[in-house]
Amino acid sequence: MTDSIAQQQMLYVRDEMSDAEIAEQADLYGPLTDSVRELIELALLTEVDGPEVRAAQEHLESAKQILRTRVNPGPYGVRWGASGQKRAWGNAAAGLRNAIAPPLVFNFDADGRAWTDFHLGSAYEGPAGLTHGGIAALVLDQALGSAAEAGGAPGMTGTLNLRYLRPTPLGALHAEARIDRVEGIKTIVTGQLSGPDGVCVEAEGIFILPRWARGGDSAKVSDPV
Ligand SMILES: CCCCCCCCCCCCCC(=O)SCCNC(=O)CCNC(=O)[C@H](O)C(C)(C)COP(=O)(O)OP(=O)(O)OC[C@H]1O[C@@H](n2cnc3c(N)ncnc32)[C@H](O)[C@@H]1OP(=O)(O)O
């Protein structure tokens, strides 16, 4: 096993936090993430003048000073509480504590389906007024990976094929994914990203349980390490 894989595995942690403690943390840090996300959009779109920009920036410096008094060296990793509740709060596509993540809240079912209704603002723009293609890929990668995990056949993205059928607007969007089939350690998942006028991007992915996570009969592994 290489050092980098060993280090990666150490970021999968069972920390025995109770569900109540997890809810308390979500209530504390979730709104902070939402504020920072809103700040990103405001920094992009504000048209106030120089003195106001400088005053706002000074406030931000004070906020950063408070937050930096105690900091996890990072990355956040993936953590499980005492009841098995998972927190991938650093995830760049859907982490509750990651303000660069689009505001995605997934629904799952155990048949291997994941779906989310969400809103993308101006911070996710690619072509003028449209969603960036890389953001569409990010959302679909997460949706497909989450469906594989929900169906008890998790894996790392091995291959992700995308077909951009029509431009994806900003605003109200829907992403969904479902397991098509499981072939041993490989889970084949399909999905779509849709806007008000229909499907914008279709995806098919192969998710592979990595070598380091395989036990005896890896096809039966239902939980990431
Ligand atoms: C528990 C794991 C994590 C769970 C995370 C849940 C998160 C939820 C949501 C997260 C969502 C976001 C998720 C993310 O962002 S995941 C981040 C993005 N993905 C990566 O970084 C993956 C990097 N690659 C690897 O780690 C390895 O190459 C993998 C794990 C993919 C395979 O390396 P491994 O050493 O294990 O493979 P093997 O050589 O024993 O081959 C085994 C079989 O697989 C076939 N094959 C190999 N490579 C590919 C390929 N690229 N496409 C298609 N097929 C491939 C191969 O032919 C063979 O098939 P067969 O000959 O037996 O038929």
From TrEMBL:
InterPro entries: HotDog_dom_sf, THEM4/THEM5_acyl-CoA_thioest, Thioestr_dom. Its main location: membrane. Keywords: Apoptosis, Cell membrane, Cell projection, Cytoplasm, Fatty acid metabolism, Hydrolase, Lipid metabolism, Membrane, Transit peptide. It comes from the Bacteria. It is found in: Cell projection, Ruffle membrane; Cytoplasm; Membrane. The keyword Lipid metabolism applies. It catalyses: dodecanoyl-CoA + H2O = dodecanoate + CoA + H(+); (5Z,8Z,11Z,14Z)-eicosatetraenoyl-CoA + H2O = (5Z,8Z,11Z,14Z)-eicosatetraenoate + CoA + H(+); octanoyl-CoA + H2O = octanoate + CoA + H(+); hexadecanoyl-CoA + H2O = hexadecanoate + CoA + H(+). It is an enzyme of class 3 (hydrolase). SUPFAM superfamilies: Thioesterase/thiol ester dehydrase-isomerase. Coiled coil: none annotated. Its EC number is 3.1.2.2. Residues 129-185 form the Thioesterase domain. Gene3D superfamilies: Hotdog Thioesterase. The keyword Membrane applies. GO terms for molecular function: hydrolase activity. It is a peripheral membrane protein. Belongs to the THEM4/THEM5 thioesterase family. This is Acyl-coenzyme A thioesterase THEM4. It comes from Rhodococcus kronopolitis. The lineage of its organism: Bacteria, Bacillati, Actinomycetota, Actinomycetes, Mycobacteriales.
